[in-house]
Amino acid sequence: MFDINNFDGIIYGADYNPEQWPREIWREDVRLMNEAGVNLVSLGIFSWAHLEPQPGTYIFDWLDEVMDLLHEHGIGVNLATATASPPPWLSLKYPDSKPVTADGVRLEVGGRQLYCPSHKAFRTHVRELTEQLARRYQDHPALKLWHVNNEYGCHVDQCFCSLCAEEFRSWLRDKYGTLDTLNFAWGTAFWSQRYGDWAEIQPPRRAPTYANPTQQLDWRRFSSDNLLTLYRLEADVLRNMTPHIPVTTNFLGFLPGLDYFKWAQEEDVVSLDAYPDPGGSRPHFEAGMSYDMMRSLRGGQRWILMEQATSAVNWRERNSLKRPGLMRLLNHQALAHGASGLMFFQWRASRAGAEKYHSGMVQHVGPERSRVWQEVKALGQELKTLAELTQARLPARVAIMFDWNNWWALEIDSKPAALKLMPLVQKWYAALKQLGQNVDFVHPEGDLSAYDVVALPNQYLLSHPAAQNVRRFVASGGTLVSGFFSGIVDEHEHVQLGGYPALLGDVLGLWVEEWVVLQPHEKNQIQLLNSGTTYDVFNWAEVIHLTGAEMLATFQQDFIAGQPAVTSHHFGAGKAYYLAGDFPEEAVIDLLAQVLLHADVPMCRLPERLNVTLSELGETCVLHLLNVHPTQPLQIRLPDGGLCFENGTYLPQVMTLAPYGIALVRYHRSVRMDELQVQDEVSAHAPSP
Ligand code: GLA
Ligand code: ZN
Prior knowledge:
689 residues; Rossmann fold; nine-stranded parallel beta sheet; nine-stranded mixed beta sheet; 29% helix; binds alpha-D-galactopyranose
């Protein structure tokens, strides 16, 4: 396994685009990089047009100079293969290399990422450029890491052209073998869709009405795989020519188009671009979810935050800046959630082009007079004192099940309601964070044995092997919490008959007869039997029949008043809970707290603005506490025995965490989350330790 710790401390740096600047600036750049503590830059991401200005004519002298200059200053290079955006000549020379939308529109020159992944000549040019770069720099001492392409699928995650149609057909042949198998899987008996020849099969282009759902689902799978083939083409060249250099490509967290569980297996280290909205109320949940996914993709391996903004981005309707202290705080969060590298887009804010109003480490005002630069420099210094954190691991007792196949299937049209997966996952994630948990994401067919609790906010599609996996997990003592509309269809998106969710019915001890979809102006209510607490229910409720499950809450209104809304069921040595509606976050917190309690998972109730992780570092434990609020302090009662991470002195047990404040506390014993107490308002009478 690639050892991310070979970098000797925490990676700190940015995308570096020297081709946008005259040579004189380059010397100034490296001087400033040294001043900021930069030790790695991503170079050449959008340099194709400069490296190959005409077909087959390569110009490397400027890149040689930059590579040498960086090396002389002790800065390593994460060298891009420069294939992220083909130069205009390429797209014009091969008009059919330009991708096509579902409506048949061919996209045009002038933006970026303009390529069809299936185009043969495009692929050849990609391979040649990658080979050229690998040959030229394979022994360059600055080369530390390969950055393949850039954010695959960010702008174009599906191309509907005839070349892709051909690739789709051969992907389907590999998958199904015979047309009969395909016809069955796609349910083509419906609407006279039966295929008699492979050549009749098309991508799900704009059609008169709903395209066949399984065709749509397979198309999403194929589109992710087709881009993966393109990635693999480059990765193979690099692995061949420079086996000593690790390979990555930067992910986008919860990007709809790519099945990152599959992709991550073909990298040496996972890297992520994360742009949580600083104008949003909970940027740390938005970021934290992606961070936890990145850590989960390769079994807990630490990862690199490849891009983030020092302050504002340029691509939202309103681009909030990061107020003083927020940039540092969010970098601490990445470290706490398993990052070993913290990098920005980009080193120097551009003068021209579409991203000139995107912040950089060096802002338009220049370094000396810049607040952002002061923070960038201070963070670079601080990171040197935190290098040990790159050895930490985050044990999680709770995992959220996540699968891109499910995401695709759920959001295909013609459902009981137009459900969106991410808001639900976000809600459950936020709830678990507010209960003090480290959260992993786990693939439905992944190893569940490390977890006490596995949560399925909305696992609509569950393959048969995945259902077996879940069943085994519960039977052997695990706790399952399933949200509504889970376990409904198999991998072909075929409904499992006999009462929903047939794939999990025996585990949950119930069957669902009907779904009660609520209109925007409608709501129901649930009441918890143990506490009497009531919560509103929106969007979704159900008609449930119990076959062994116990009722924990009932619906309060309409024809389902008094009927089960939340249940639990013993199955083998474990337990399975069911939440039969779309409940507000407070209800999810309340219910998950009860689940954790019964599963004997230590927890505490945290205010939403406090981000906490608990990690293991050698023989010690580390609590990383972040107050994600610009003005409100927090009062915290720490587990006893807490030492200041940096200097080992004892910390007072009761402490005030300032606005945007950070506390890193080390323990020479194992710590449980239920030892942590937080008071939301700073009270005048602090409890004595
Ligand atoms: C992405 C890209 C970068 C840049 C940033 C701007 O992450 O990889 O090239 O466009 O977005 O936020
Ligand atoms: Zn195409």
